[in-house]
Amino acid sequence: MVRTRVGYCGGASESPTYQRIGDHSESVEIDYDPRVVTYGDLLAEFFAGHDARARAFSTQYRSAIFCRTDEERAAAERALQSLQVALGLLHASIEPLTRFWIAEDYHQKFRLRGHSRIAAELRALMPDERAFTDSTSAARLNGWVDGWGSAAQVERELPLTGLSRSAQDEVRALAGRREYANPLGNEQESAHAIRGRTYR
Amino acid sequence: MKPQEETPTPKLSAPPLDLEHPESLATATFAMG
């Protein structure tokens, strides 16, 4: 995973905002290196990251996979069918991507912004807010301060974020508090892991 | 006459982690409840 950004997707209304989201859903875009992570890996994380068994309360908070290609659609359908065998009906919609509208700056890297000293240090290295949103370091830190990340990843990558030693120490104390499984390579394993981790 | 050399644009500092991008990336989009 190289970059992330949050925004609005799946609807028809123009220029959605948080206050006027219209028929869009809150969404995330992930730029990734396909030599390192496969689309199947991301699908496994998608299903592990929320409970798609529950019907959405609203369009804003529904579960959806927005596909760019026929290959993505086929992979998404395979993953959904395989998981439904194990877990029962899942309310995840698979649909073609129309347009992703990036959300307002204050929604980007929301967890990191909650740690203002760390966020300010990183922001000072960036020319503008868009660079902050698109920063790999910001994406990693956003997860680490929220308790994600393996010890190995934090040790390898935290020194490369440009943060001061004291800010790095602050991040180390926050990272890795959550159980984290690496993305899994096949749907069979994913179904097993998801059943064990999230869908108890 | 020798053309005047352009002043190099100062390089913005960026975290090393941000500079390790490969050439081609793929993008995935999800709504997660």
CATH class of the largest domain in chain A: Alpha Beta
Percent helix range of chain A: 40-55%
What is the SS-derived class of chain B? Answer: mainly beta
Oligomeric grouping of the chains: heterodimer
**Most strands sheet of chain B:** none
Unreliable stretches of chain B (pLDDT < 50, length at least 5) are: none
Q: Please tally the β strands of chain B and state the result.
A: 1
- CA radius of gyration of chain B is 19 Å
Strands of chain A, count:
5
Query: CATH H level of the largest domain in chain A: which superfamily?
Result: Peptide methionine sulphoxide reductase MsrA
Gap between N and C termini of chain A = 27 Å
What is the distance, rounded to the nearest whole angstrom, between the alpha carbons of the first and last residues of chain B? Answer: 66 Å
Spatial order of the strands forming the largest sheet of chain A: 2-1-5
Given the structure, what is the number of helices of chain B?
Answer: 0
Can you tell me the CATH topology of the largest domain in chain A?
Peptide Methionine Sulfoxide Reductase, Chain A
Radius of gyration of chain A: 18 Å
Q: Classify the beta-strand content of chain A into a percent band.
A: 5-15%
| Nearest-integer average pLDDT of chain B | 76
Which ranges of chain A are low-confidence, i.e. pLDDT below 50, for 5 or more consecutive residues?
Answer: 180-200
- Characterize the overall form of chain A: globular
